[in-house]
């Protein structure tokens, strides 16, 4: 989300959560609503400490809902798809959550992701969204910054916009699930509120993640909206030219992306179709490096 953080200058004291003492250290990052610090528990294990002031646009009820959804998912998550929620401390002005610490995010490693890693993270992301969806949770803000990495494995973080659903197919209004604009599906970018299905949103955002990882860059349309030039070009499905950011995407990924980043929801790939796609099923191999040849990690790749 756009950074409108009010508590940029916040400092935290030593705190006790669930009987354990935590010492906050350096600031790790700032989102629109909170500031995240590195911290240590009394055993010197590293944790992340997320501080959020209660504000008119981030009420106590909203923050506590974020905590409860994240805690519930973390408790039933056997495969390790979600950053673990360790505990929470509330006071009249703020809510503080203690979380498992992840040293990197997909955003922080962009530029040096190999095709084998891209496939691994994409597979883990699809398993993660399937897990959340089957537990009736819509995350609503999947983005490279909210997908963290711990010991080389992807972990879904930031449940600040997450919603609980009565059923897997419960629809809700597009205006209730606007996350990071680049990662939002076209039905969410529409000006008028329209009913949306959570799994279609998950699929679209995962596609933008795959597109950016494959390119090793954040290049994308600003929003999936008519009259946004790059998006219009994507929808027109014309043969890409060198100026189109998807020009160098390999055919196997491109075939899948065309099915995922499909504006028509009735034609958009389902999670099952993604899992049955050749790209998902067939293991990627690192390209053999030849001296002088452009490699993926150099950021420039020959088209194949
Ligand atoms: N568990 C964690 N371990 C390490 N770093 C983290 C952790 N959680 C969050 N961060 C860092 O802090 C940043 C902000 O955290 P988070 O996204 O939870 O805050 P937010 O205010 O809800 O953000 P947003 O504006 O994206 O909604 C992240 O982008 C990430 O860099």
From TrEMBL:
Binding site for ATP: 50
Annotated Protein kinase domain residues: 22-280
InterPro entries: Kinase-like_dom_sf, Prot_kinase_dom, Protein_kinase_ATP_BS
Region named Disordered: 283-304
Keyword annotations from UniProtKB, A to Z: ATP-binding, Kinase, Nucleotide-binding, Serine/threonine-protein kinase, Transferase
Gene Ontology biological process terms from the UniProt entry: DNA damage response; establishment of cell polarity; positive regulation of vesicle transport along microtubule; regulation of Wnt signaling pathway; signal transduction
Pfam families per UniProt: Pkinase (PF00069)
GO cellular component: cytoplasm; nucleus
Protein name: Protein kinase domain-containing protein
Source organism of this protein record: Caenorhabditis brenneri
């Amino acid at each position: 989300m756009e950074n409108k953080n009010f508590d940029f200058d916040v400092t935290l004291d030593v705190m006790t959560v669930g009987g354990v003492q935590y010492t906050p250290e350096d600031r790790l990052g700032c989102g629109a609503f909170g500031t995240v610090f590195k911290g240590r528990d009394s055993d010197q294990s590293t944790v992340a400490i997320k501080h959020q002031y209660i504000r008119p646009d981030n009420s106590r009820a909203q923050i506590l809902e974020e905590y409860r959804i994240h805690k519930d998912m973390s408790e039933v998550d056997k495969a390790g798809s979600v950053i673990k929620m360790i505990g929470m401390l509330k006071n009249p002005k703020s809510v503080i959550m203690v979380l498992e610490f992840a040293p990197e995010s997909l955003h922080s490693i962009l530029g040096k992701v190999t095709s084998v890693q891209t496939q691994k993270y994409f597979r883990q992301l699809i398993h993660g969204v399937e897990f959340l969806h089957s537990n009736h949770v819509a995350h609503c803000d999947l983005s490279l910054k909210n997908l963290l990495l711990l010991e080389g494995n992807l972990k879904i973080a930031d449940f600040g916009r997450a919603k609980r659903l009565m059923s897997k197919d419960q629809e809700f209004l597009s205006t209730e699930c606007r996350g990071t604009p680049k990662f939002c599906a076209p039905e969410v970018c529409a000006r008028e509120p329209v009913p949306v299905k959570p799994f279609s949103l998950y699929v679209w955002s995962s596609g933008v993640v795959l597109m950016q990882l494959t390119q090793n860059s954040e290049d994308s349309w600003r929003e999936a909206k008519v009259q946004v030039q790059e998006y219009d070009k994507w929808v027109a499905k014309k043969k890409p030219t060198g100026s189109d950011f998807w020009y160098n995407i390999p055919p196997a990924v491109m075939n899948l992306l065309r099915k995922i980043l499909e504006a028509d929801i009735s034609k958009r790939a389902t999670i099952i179709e993604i899992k049955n796609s050749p790209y998902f099923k067939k293991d990627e191999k690192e390209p053999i490096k030849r001296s002088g040849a452009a490699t993926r990690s150099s950021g420039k790749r020959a088209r194949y």
